[in-house]
Write a structure and sequence with these properties.
Blueprint (H helix, E strand, L loop, with lengths): L1 H19 L3 H36 L4 H26 L3 H33 L1
């Protein structure tokens, strides 16, 4: 599967480079289409990963909440990276930087309850 993904990525990149001079809007469209095709190809793997993480969460007493949080954090990180990459491909680096920042802030906010639990545990030990 990785060879197919690499082939689609390289083909999309080459087509985008060839079209960039004459038709820049088509070059961006080709890049987006290649990205969507690759994303669709890995969707079954992502579903398998989600199922595995849920299973791990069910196996660990008291860790189910944290496993779910970890899954959401991973999802936010991947989606932010995907959005930033698409913007970078379109030479919109300022927007890509804002997407990266937004992803980091969202992850930090999502992690705040875990940090609060750790502080409660540590202060309870003192």
């Amino acid at each position: 599967m990785i060879f197919q993904i690499i082939a689609i990525g390289i083909l999309g990149a080459v087509l985008a480079i060839l079209l960039k001079k004459e038709h820049p809007s088509f070059a961006i469209l080709i890049t987006l289409i290649a990205g969507v095709i690759i994303a669709v190809m890995i969707l079954p793997l992502l579903a398998e990963m989600v199922g595995f993480l849920r299973h791990l969460g069910e196996m660990a007493d008291g860790l189910g909440e944290y496993a779910g949080l970890a899954l959401r954090v991973i999802g936010v990180a991947y989606m932010a990276e995907l959005g930033a990459s698409v913007c970078n491909d379109a030479n919109e680096t300022a927007i890509a930087a804002k997407i990266d920042l937004a992803g980091r802030v969202i992850i930090l906010v999502m992690a705040m309850p875990v940090v609060a639990d750790i502080v409660r545990i540590v202060t309870g030990l003192l």
